[in-house]
Amino acid sequence: MPYQAPVKDYKFLFEHVVGFDQVAHSDKFCEATPDLVDAVFNEAGRLANDVLAPLQRAGDLHPAVFENGKVRCSPGFADGYRAIADGGWIGMSSAQENGGMGLPVAMTAVVNEMMAGACLALQLNPLMSQGQIEALEHHASDALKEIYLPKLISGQWCGTMNLTEPQAGSDVGALTSKAVPNGDGTFAITGTKVFISWADNDFSENICHLVLARLPDAPAGTKGISLFMVPKLIPDADGNPGVENSLKIVSLEHKTGLHASPTAVMDFAGATGWLVSQQHAGLKAMFTMMNNARLGVGIQGLGAAEGAFQHALSYAKERKQGRVPVEDGTGTIADHADVRRMLLTMKAEIHAARAIALACGVAIDLGDALASDEWRARAAFLTPIAKAYGTETGSMVAALGVQVHGGMGYIEETGAAQYARDVRVTEIYEGTNGIQAMDLVARKMMDGGDVAFRMLDEIEEYTEAKRQQFPRMADAVWHACETLREATEWLVGQKNMNDRFAGAVPYLRAFARVLGGYYHLKSAVADGGKAARSELAQFYIFRLLPEHTALLAHAKAGADGLYRISVDDLSG
């Protein structure tokens, strides 16, 4: 079954669950009417279904290659990229004065999910550009904006992010790339960067690299990092691509998945760069890009999950195997209880994770539209949850997709395994999910848990109001929320940060579980308690939500037990 963008699901969430009406009623986004949302989603759906989805399998079988110092992309990717660029999809949320559409981030998130579900390897390219655009809009000089933003937004040029070095992975402060002033306002950038997604292609006029490096007088650690724009081709006086810069691709990585997305080792040998933002303030500017990308990567996980689910559902509805235990059923494996359990789990997890991600997008939009610190704080709190839960859902759903296929899922020709291979990296890049969880329990709890407690108050008020209409479901969500509140109180009371870190991952997942229950309940209420969404909500609330109890027990166990077994004992 070819991928079909789930446009109805997005519209339902916008209208009934994540509060997009608040965004549409703001002065900044008043043009985001229901008619416009429908038109954008329908058109993006056609792009995903008809143009991008056919590239998914072809890109895996015919990966990007590095030949004679140049990258040759997978067949059809140039046309697919051009369709994305010509449709204006790269600059959906970019400022109109720079050539963008100025639409809400929540709408961009939906479009990005459609594209990721259709072809994750290609969708990663515009995601990188979108993050770079946001970093430049917030931090670059007017001169840099004038040269780079219109071309990045139009898709003429593509953007990348160059953080990681061989000796400095998640520890960005350990990077050693150097930036030496040239005396003319530019800098000579020297160093090696690894894991550079879409470091080059054969379909855009220029590649714009944002590079982290140190100035000669830079202090040690993260406080001494600056950010530079280092283009592949140096713009001439008219802003058009000119002479080649002193940078090159050394090699492409041989990856588990995302074969059509060229991931490179890059060498900068005195390449000409321009400072973005202030000296030694590069990490702040880069985090603007990374925070955009973290929500975007969570969305990538959801896209892959949706594609894997549709693939598995189609197979389950056709495959006949064993005696069917259901009278008047389909006569296929979809009637077997365990297969039905897997399919419902996939669908329920996607709905919960999608609601969390879009609620995060709405919070970003309201923080922007209303200049509201409270909404900005909520967006910041939801970002690591959306990233981690979205990508874990992608990997889990893709793995279940292989299982639904049985032995055929392990055979590459079915395409089921590709989803699992492609999505796996989303739990790693843009900050591993462990780092997301540590960020949640540390930096995002510096307010003493105020944002978390306000969200829990909101959930409990809603469930109390719905107890008469949906007593069992509302009561289950309320009690889960109260258990999460108690765990959060314990968490913010821990002065030893390692005790927080020891349970950070299960805590984040428990928070996602409770948020998922809340959003499923809201879906059931909007559904009138009678149709499929209500049944799906019951499945999630009574079968998946109870996992929060075990997760929170783990979250509160502290760090001591992790260290009573030595590293040497682990190998004994």
The profile of the biggest β sheet is: 7 strands, mixed
Count, helices: 21
What percentage of residues falls in helices of 4 or more residues? 40-55%
Strand-pairing-aware structural class:
alpha+beta
Number of DSSP E strands: 11
The span between the termini is 49 Å
Rounded radius of gyration (Å): 24 Å
Unreliable parts: none
Overall mean pLDDT score? 95
- In percent, how much strand structure appears in the residues? 5-15%
What general form does the structure show?
A: globular
Could you explain how this protein is built, in words?
- It is a single chain.
- This protein has 572 residues and is of the alpha+beta class.
- The protein has a domain at 432-561.
- 55% of the residues lie in helices and 12% in strands.
- It contains 21 helices and 11 strands.
- It has helices at residues 7-16, 20-24, 34-52, 55-61, 77-86, 105-118, 120-139, 142-154, 282-316, 337-369, 373-405, 416-423, 433-441, 450-465, 471-492, 497-502, 504-526, 532-544, 547-555, 560-563, 567-570, and strands at 65-67, 70-72, 157-162, 178-181, 187-197, 206-213, 226-231, 233-235, 241-244, 247-252, 263-276.
- The strands form 3 sheets. Strands 3, 4, 5, 6, 7, 10 and 11 form a 7-stranded mixed beta sheet that branches.
- Helix 10 (337-369) crosses helix 18 (532-544), helix 11 (373-405) runs antiparallel to helix 12 and helix 13 (433-441) packs across helix 17.
- The longest helix is centred in the middle third of the chain and has 35 residues, at 282-316.
- The radius of gyration is 24 Å and the shape is globular.
